Amino acid sequence: MVDIKKFDIATTVTDSLIDVFDMMLSMGLQLSDDQSQTISKDERIVGSVSVAGMVMGCINIEVSKKFSHIMTSALLGITPEEVEGGDDVKDVIREICNIVGGNLKSAFCDTGLICELSPPSFTTGDDFKIEALNTVRHERYVFNYNEHIVIVEVGIRVSEVEEGADAHQQKIEYRPVNIGQVEEFDIRTPLVDQITEVFDMMLSMQIVSSEENLKSSIDADRLVGAISFVGPLMGNFSIHVSRKFSHQMTASMLGIELEEVEGGDDVKDVISELCSIVGGNLKSKFCDAGMRCELSSPSMTTGTNFKIEAKDMVRYDSFSFFCGGEPIVVDLVLKVDDQIIADDQLTESKADESGNLQTDIDSLLAVEAVSEPQPSSGDKWASTTDDGARATAGGCTLTEAEKLAFILDIPLEVVVELGRNKMQINELYNLGPGSVVEFKNLAGEPLDILVNGTLIAKGQVMVQGEKYGIKIVDILSRMERIRSMI
């Protein structure tokens, strides 16, 4: 088992963030010499992704609101003043979170620590703090671009699965989740029942469900505990309470007076336990219904002015409760993993086509094999006729022409590739009439000829009449060309 305390997080995070700022935003980000730097109390935005599997935790990337607009303008090729609303900003932060988080996830998986990544969530405001709960390692990296600061925080631990357990030793091939199933699933009943039971059994507190949305009734100084679902079913469960009530919850659970609640560790333990219990029970309900997911470790956000959002979810549910006049709000957002949906749809759409093509190719390859002279071996093989038109195998007789007919009418896309190169996103945005895009190919070099995306030949451009053509100078053998389509 890999020692998570010795795992090289710094290299992956640093290289990933510097590369993405360079390639996507054309910004020369540098690791700061002063790792104690913080972003001022001005409004800021934090993109967060959770990790679940053999590694559990979260990754937070924080920038000021001002710098987020500069980043967005660099990507879109506009001025910071032209950046309108928050959607474009969140899209940029989301891409950076996905790239940095995805590279760190890949680094974990490469060492056998199989894990998955949640969709990003966004926290905005000018007074808040996000902490990963129940983790054994916390890393913080500060970067600079001119006077601007980017902070990356990583809190992780290894999950408490039995070492050598099969469930996490390899990537699980989940069955895709149906969006309609997520939309129609009865969330209210199990969630309300679970919250009521946990407050009763764990905290000895009686709560009452309310039809009102009580989020605005919670004191400004508040606390949000959250836990994420990762897998074919993705999402987030969060509970919102005032800081004052979180102390009451802690005192009730520990059996002490309110005045005896000291520091924040006891509060964190209570919030972590509550999120883990409710999240774990919801996960079981989802899995029992065929909506598979894994659970991340909890996180906690505290402050007096902040807002937490999740984008592009299938469901947004909010439930309110009262406990002795104190409002409690529980949010649950869910979506289906886009990649699993896309892969499933692609597989289904190509199933018939690929199946038929494979059969046709197999037929042609059989013809190629049979049409070559074969040694006599009883009745198993019959020699071809003089014109090679007929072959017999296992008592079944088909002409070569009949077998070739299976595939001769299949349309194929032929592409002649002039060249390839890479460009940054801002260069793409700046292209216009008259722009020249250079390729790495040298003048006079043979061009690649691709059939259905597969390289099968090289050739030189020719002009015949008023049309372009290409003269083949090198090509795969007939058998290799057919096999390249398999």
TrEMBL record:
The keyword Cell membrane applies. CDD domains: CheX. One of its GO terms (biological process) is bacterial-type flagellum-dependent cell motility. One of its GO terms (molecular function) is cytoskeletal motor activity. It comes from the Bacteria. Keywords: Cell membrane, Cell projection, Chemotaxis, Cilium, Flagellar rotation, Flagellum, Membrane. It is a peripheral membrane protein. Residues 407-476 form the Flagellar motor switch protein FliN-like C-terminal domain. Residues 45-133, 224-312 form the Chemotaxis phosphatase CheX-like domain. It is found in: Cell membrane. The keyword Ligase does not apply. Gene3D superfamilies: CheC-like, SpoA-like. GO terms for cellular component: bacterial-type flagellum basal body; plasma membrane. InterPro entries: CheC-like_sf, CheX-like, CheX-like_dom, FliN, FliN-like_C, FliN_T3SS_HrcQb, SpoA-like_sf. Belongs to the FliN/MopA/SpaO family. FliM is one of three proteins (FliG, FliN, FliM) that forms the rotor-mounted switch complex (C ring), located at the base of the basal body. This complex interacts with the CheY and CheZ chemotaxis proteins, in addition to contacting components of the motor that determine the direction of flagellar rotation. This is Flagellar motor switch protein FliN (Modular protein).
